[in-house]
């Protein structure tokens, strides 16, 4: 932040002091991207022209007053693409090679020979065709998996996915896939997208991976689908309630991998997020177009921006 401090009056604050810090401020850097404090303090934002959030998802700041204002909203798209893709490839391999069972047997000092699955040839559906979804598609293709995408509109000539299905066709196409990866932004259209009907449509041998938002999933429906064997497993990095309560059934289901919202968090990620903001701040000061401008009606950065 040194370059920014030399060019502007910077006020650092926590949630309690946010309203006071907003008065007279021209820009807001939401570094704590999990905080829900901005809507409650927004009444004090008397001259804000630009809000930047240190995450790819913008749902914590998509409240009506900001969405309907002239304030520019930018995000940190691009920071987490590769690391989240690596996480997804890792859990796919972990499922296919039964690594969690191998660790259990190792702790028990039991030599139990088993056969495992091939990764190559297993079909994957990536729900969300932004930069993170594309990075996932490229890595899974490199591992020999045919990959399709799902987005707002259908098309057959996508450079990373080939075929992209429309979100409205989710239940219809789910039976074709062995791995279903959720990475879509949270919008009114995607909230609760994966419900009982979606899980019932999946193959009983299919695995579900969520690296998008917890609210994309009706969690109770997912738990029931796992308990009933309607799907074979799930790798979950995000949840409706975080931290995941210690008594939640997802902790103990044998076919579930739980990680604490860390799939994108590589060593040094916090500094990288500040560097993204600093770059955009320099552009803002010199009247250059800002990077990663969010379409506030869509809830994400459109392709090509």
Biggest sheet, in brief?
8 strands, mixed
Q: What are the secondary-structure elements, in order, as H or E?
A: HHEHEHEHHEHEEEHEHEHEEH
- Do you know the CATH topology of the largest domain? Rossmann fold
- Tell me the span between the first and last alpha carbons: 25 Å
Name of the top-level CATH class of the largest domain: Alpha Beta
Write a short abstract of this structure.
By secondary structure, the chain is of the alpha/beta class. It has helices spanning 2-5, 18-22, 38-41, 64-67, 81-96, 99-107, 131-142, 170-173, 196-201, 219-227, 269-285, and strands spanning 27-30, 50-53, 72-74, 124-127, 147-151, 155-158, 162-166, 179-182, 207-210, 233-236, 256-258.
Question: Which features does this protein show?
Answer:
305 residues; alpha/beta; Rossmann fold; 2 domains; eight-stranded mixed β-sheet; three-stranded parallel β-sheet; 11 helices; 11 strands; 30% helix
Give the helix/strand layout.
Layout: H1 2-5, H2 18-22, E1 27-30, H3 38-41, E2 50-53, H4 64-67, E3 72-74, H5 81-96, H6 99-107, E4 124-127, H7 131-142, E5 147-151, E6 155-158, E7 162-166, H8 170-173, E8 179-182, H9 196-201, E9 207-210, H10 219-227, E10 233-236, E11 256-258, H11 269-285
Parallel strand pairs: 1-2, 2-3, 4-5, 4-8, 5-7, 8-9, 9-10, 10-11
Antiparallel strand pairs: 6-7
Helix pairs in contact: 5-7
Would you kindly provide a written description of the structure presented here, covering whatever features stand out?
The protein is α/β, with parallel strands linked by helices and 305 residues long. It folds into 2 domains: 2-78 and 266-285, Rossmann fold (3-Layer(aba) Sandwich); 81-258, Rossmann fold (3-Layer(aba) Sandwich), CATH 3.40.50.720. Helices cover 30% and strands 14% of the residues. The chain is built from 11 helices and 11 strands. It has helices at 2-5, 18-22, 38-41, 64-67, 81-96, 99-107, 131-142, 170-173, 196-201, 219-227, 269-285, and strands spanning 27-30, 50-53, 72-74, 124-127, 147-151, 155-158, 162-166, 179-182, 207-210, 233-236, 256-258. The strands form 2 sheets. An 8-stranded mixed β-sheet has the order 6-7-5-4-8-9-10-11, with helices on one face. A 3-stranded parallel β-sheet has the order 1-2-3, with no helix packed on it. Strand 2 (50-53), helix 4 (64-67) and strand 3 (72-74) form a beta-alpha-beta unit. Helix 5 packs across helix 7 (131-142). The longest helix has 17 residues, at 269-285. The protein is globular, with a radius of gyration of 21 Å. The relative contact order is 0.13. The model has no long low-confidence stretch (mean pLDDT 97). This is D-2-hydroxyacid dehydrogenase. Belongs to the D-isomer specific 2-hydroxyacid dehydrogenase family. Residues 13-264 form the D-isomer specific 2-hydroxyacid dehydrogenase catalytic domain.
């Amino acid at each position: 932040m040194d370059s920014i401090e030399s060019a502007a009056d910077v006020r650092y604050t926590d949630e309690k002091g946010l309203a006071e810090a907003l008065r007279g401020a021209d820009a807001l850097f939401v570094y704590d991207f999990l905080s829900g404090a901005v809507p409650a303090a927004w009444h004090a934002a008397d001259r804000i022209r630009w809000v930047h959030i240190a995450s790819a998802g913008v749902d914590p700041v998509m409240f009506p007053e900001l969405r309907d204002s002239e304030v520019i909203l930018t995000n940190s798209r691009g920071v987490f693409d590769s690391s989240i893709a690596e996480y997804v490839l890792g859990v796919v391999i972990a499922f296919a090679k039964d690594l969690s069972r191998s660790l259990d047997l190792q702790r028990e000092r039991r030599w139990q020979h088993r056969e495992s699955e091939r990764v190559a040839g297993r079909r994957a559906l990536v729900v969300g065709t932004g930069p993170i979804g594309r990075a996932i598609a490229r890595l899974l293709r490199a591992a020999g998996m045919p990959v399709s995408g799902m987005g707002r509109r259908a098309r057959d000539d996508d450079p990373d996915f080939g075929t992209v299905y429309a979100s409205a066709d989710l239940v219809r196409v789910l039976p074709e896939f062995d791995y279903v990866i959720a990475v879509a932004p949270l919008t009114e259209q995607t909230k609760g997208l994966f419900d009982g009907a979606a899980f019932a449509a999946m193959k009983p041998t299919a695995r579900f991976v969520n690296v998008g938002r917890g609210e994309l999933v009706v969690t109770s429906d997912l738990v029931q689908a796992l308990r009933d064997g309607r799907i074979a497993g799930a790798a979950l990095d995000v949840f409706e309630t975080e931290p995941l309560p210690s008594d939640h059934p997802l902790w103990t289901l044998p076919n579930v991998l739980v990680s604490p919202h860390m799939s994108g968090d590589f060593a040094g990620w916090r500094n990288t997020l500040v560097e993204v903001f600093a770059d955009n701040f320099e552009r803002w000061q010199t009247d250059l177009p800002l990077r990663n401008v969010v379409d506030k009606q869509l809830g994400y950065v459109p392709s090509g921006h």
